[in-house]
Amino acid sequence: MAKTIMIVDDSASLRQVVGISLRSAGYDVLEGSDGADALKKLTGQKVHLIISDVNMPNMDGISMVKEIKKLPAYKFTPIVMLTTESADGKKAEGQAAGAKAWMLKPFNPPQLLAVVQKLVLP
Amino acid sequence: MTTPASSPDTTPFLLRWQSTAFALVAGGVAVASGRGVAEALVASALIAGAVFLDRARGGREAQARGAHAAFLASTDRLGQDVLPVWAAHIENSRQQMETAVAALTQRFAGIVDRLDQTLRASGQGVDKGLSAAFAHSSEELRGVLDSLKDAMASNAAMHTEVQNLSRFVAELQQMAAEVADIAQQTNLLAINAAIEAAHAGVEGRGFAVLAQEVRKLSALSGATGQRMADKVGVIGEAIRVARDAAQASARREAASALASEGAINGVLDRFRGVTQAMEDSAAELKQESAGIQVEIVEALVQLQFQDRVSQRMTHVRHNIERLPDLLSASRRSFDTSGALAPVDAEGLLGELEGSYAMADERATHAGGSPKAAPQAAVAELEEVTFF
Fold first, then answer.
1. ipTM confidence score
2. Across the A/B interface, how many CB contacts are shorter than 8 Å?
């Protein structure tokens, strides 16, 4: 059975690009358009990894990570921040919130897949 | 653009009243001191001149104040009317680009999906369908060839049997010849017996009759042997004809089987060639399609620029949207206090810098050339930090 990865980004085109890369590698993909939308869609189903943007409307990525870590079903789900945000302070916030990796956009699909394979839950 | 702070407008106002007071005091002092009318007139003229100069200066200052107010009103209008239009254009362009790129990405994603489905379907069809059809056909035709070979083997066995019959015919002919020879020998014995019976005279008459009968039997035996030889010859000839016919038939069957095998192998070879060509074509198509898929995915990756451009435009728009408030505040300050308050450009720049997310934005802000931005973007491409 294919593993499920959630993509959270307010850019529809970026969700598409990430989705194509992941689907071509055999993963099922779940999408959220911002942090609040992602939390609404995490309803207890198994999610093996979450890839999230940082700067988003309604709820930003770091706040979303903090909220996810409070959910028993997802507190061990690894989260990769995929963002244009390169400031060290923001990275530190992401790390403190519980993110597992910080990856800068524009991303390279093979590299994204390597990160996914390294962190995805068994 | 900032306006340098000017001195408060109250200073020329005070100076104006100070000079008027000074002229009035001078005229009064001259009259009071009793120095004469001429001096009083001079003093009055001085007073009148001072008053005139004072009014002229007041007019200029009022003009300057009006100009300041008009300038501030124009900058306020710039902020209220022009800047929102700029910001709206930026936002509209950003949204149009985002919508267009999202639609483009969606369509490319659809192409990738359809290519993927087509590849899977055609791969299964060609790999399994053609191979299975070829294997089945090959098996069927090989079965036909095996049947032909079995028939030829049966014919060969029958031919061997017929040849064995020929050998028996030769043995029968030999036996018939031996019977004829025995009959001839018996006849000679009977003749000798008849001669001896004649020599014996009357006593040998009975023996002569016996010898006569033996000769008849020997003649009958000889005739039977001859008929046997004749019949065996007929049978032998029939067997030879049958054998020759069987040989001819076997040769024809062998030639026919050989031709059939050649034809079947030819058909199978052509079929194999066609299926191989189709498989090669399908494999090439698969490879090309996979290549196109990769190209499309790479093209999609390049579309990530939209996200960066969108963010950058949003940051600039937010900063532009802040300027009208600052210009209005400057105007309000002038209206209430009469003082020209500078627009806080440093603060505005600080806000803009604080909104940056990307290194190339910071590089541009710091004075990097426009060319520096793509280089910065490339430099960031490989960066991943694990916590």
1. 0.91
2. 105
